[in-house]
Design brief:
single chain; 517 residues; D-Maltodextrin-Binding Protein, domain 2; 13 helices; alpha+beta; Dipeptide-binding Protein, domain 1; 7-stranded mixed β-sheet; Dipeptide-binding Protein, domain 3; 23 strands
Length: 517
């Protein structure tokens, strides 16, 4: 089949790619660091954020008990250590003792308990409520120690507190919550303090002068500008309006390779979110597994991700970072147009059918991918009608179940406990991406067994069983991943990007950045 004319990364790119320098000179304090993002936050309540940009922005202000290391593996955050006992049903977390909220109050175990109680309260409307439904009770043992008693054994419980792709479970001070239950000014413990959010314009923070890490941060303030068009973001970087931007397309990189802009440094270490298709399993046609399978057999993942990311793309059926020890060897579905047509016929669609596919215009990857999917499925008899809107609108549709089929991105993670149960069980935090209608007891059992398994080999086996079910049932169809190039001014020093683009991570991130200008 003919591929869309999306440029492939040229060999010349290698000449241009240089890694952000780690300075040997003394860092300079002060300055405003301006970065450009494609999509906006959906709110400034850290317990209600559901998007990657929300997680990235909140990571500047709020910290987690467990945080993602630069390679995506879990590491200590506000908790210095944790241990498991009582057959996997009790986790005890030991908190740092040198932490203060931005309002000057001490951070304590009581605050941690309050945060989880708020997320578990149905009135809060937190998408993380389902993730922590395993918590039976919490007990504050002393100001810096908290014990979680779980309903079921869960070896992966600490991993539910973080994501390799976004800081999903930030701690906020109780004083952040207004009388009506909303949050308009989050108070955290992070390297920067919240200043202002202007929807569709910018998110602004300032230096936390009392940050627990001595001498950090160096910057006075950070402004995250919302600029959906990557061409505009790149032009703003070259003009000096932006100091940093990510989410650059492969065609942008190729263009820069042909005419390298002066004073711009590229980094190719960062990986994109995993592209995936998801289905409303609560109504026709995708409440029928055969129609979902027809889509899976009707697409060619390699063509899709190559059209998006070029020759550095990686088709895959699991959204895990390269460093993950939990990747399993499960064969993927190969394209088979005849089988896809037969499945549609068996499902009652011998003449094919029309399907509306929703996505977000804010991310160029999605817009390229949906066109390739549309072209491929046409051969099967599925006529795709593209419904594209901005990111907040798309997310809103998904939350309401007002979609038929969707295409989006999912952060790459280290531990599958964050991904599979929240997405593929009815009460999961992300079950709205199947309209909360997908339910396979066999899959749920495999995931529960994986989470309760203390021996690593057993845990991996149960995850393999789960992936086999996901590939066959196709509640989602993972497509693949590729490079997510970032670019910055050459005067930006000591910025070592996280593999998934987080703003703050241990030993790397914006808190270490300084400007040599």
């Amino acid at each position: 089949m003919k591929k869309l004319a999306t440029p492939i990364l040229a060999l010349a790119v290698v000449i241009l790619i240089t890694f952000p320098s780690v300075s040997t000179g003394a860092p300079k304090y002060g300055g405003t660091f301006i970065t450009g993002e494609a999509a906006d936050l959906n709110n400034v309540d850290p317990h209600r954020g559901v998007t990657k940009i929300s997680g990235k922005a909140f990571s500047l202000v709020c910290e987690n008990l467990v945080i993602s290391e630069r390679d995506g593996a879990p590491g200590p955050g506000l908790a210095e250590s944790w241990e498991l006992s009582e057959g996997g049903k009790v986790w005890t977390f030991h908190l740092r003792q040198d932490v203060k909220w931005h309002n000057g109050k001490d951070f304590t175990a009581d605050d941690v308990k309050w945060n989880f109680e708020r997320m578990l309260d149905p009135k809060t409307g937190s998408p993380w409520r389902g993730r922590f439904a395993v918590i039976e009770s919490m007990q504050v043992l002393d100001p810096h120690t908290i014990k979680f008693q779980l309903k079921n054994p869960s070896v992966g419980f600490p991993a539910t507190m973080y994501s390799a792709g976004s800081a999903q479970v930030p701690m906020v001070a109780p004083e952040s919550v207004n009388a009506d239950g909303t949050v308009t000014h989050p108070i955290g413990t992070g390297p920067f303090e919240f200043v202002e959010w202007k929807p569709k314009e910018y998110f602004k923070v300032k230096k936390n002068k009392n940050y627990r890490v001595k001498d950090l941060p160096y910057l006075d303030e950070i402004i995250v500008k919302i600029i959906p068009d990557e061409t505009v973001r790149l032009a703003a970087l070259q003009s000096g309006e932006l100091d940093y931007t990510d989410n650059l397309g492969s065609y942008q990189v190729e263009k820069m390779a042909k005419n390298p802009p002066k004073g711009v440094v590229l980094n190719m270490e960062t990986l994109s979110s995993t592209l995936f298709l998801h289905f409303n399993a609560g109504q026709p046609p995708f409440n029928d597994v055969r129609v979902r399978q027809a889509v899976a057999y009707g697409i060619n993942k390699k063509e899709i991700v190559e059209s998006v990311y070029g020759e550095r793309s990686m088709p895959q059926n699991q959204p895990l970072v390269p460093a993950s020890t939990w990747k399993v060897d499960v064969p993927d579905v190969e394209r088979d147009v005849a089988k896809a047509k037969l499945l549609l016929k068996e499902a009652g669609y011998p003449q094919g059918l029309d399907v509306t596919l929703s996505t977000a215009t804010d991310y160029w990857q999605y817009m390229v991918a949906v066109q390739v999917v549309q072209e491929q499925l046409k051969e099967v008899g599925i006529n795709i009608i593209i419904d594209a809107s901005d990111w907040p609108t798309y997310v809103g549709k998904c939350l309401k179940g007002a979609f038929v089929m969707g295409l989006a991105g999912w952060p790459m993670d280290y531990d599958p406990v964050f991904t599979y149960a929240p997405c593929f069980t009815p009460q999961g935090a992300y079950a709205f991406l199947t309209a909360k209608a997908y339910d396979n007891p066999e899959l749920t059992e495999s995931l529960q067994q994986a989470d309760a398994a203390v021996i690593a080999a057993d845990r991996k086996k149960f995850f393999a069983d789960a992936v086999k079910i996901i590939v066959n049932d196709a509640p989602w169809v993972y497509l693949g991943v590729g490079p997510a190039p970032t670019a910055q001014g050459s005067y930006v020093k000591d910025l070592q990007p996280h593999i998934s683009g987080l703003y703050v991570a241990p030993k790397s991130g914006f808190q270490y950045v300084w400007l040599d200008k």
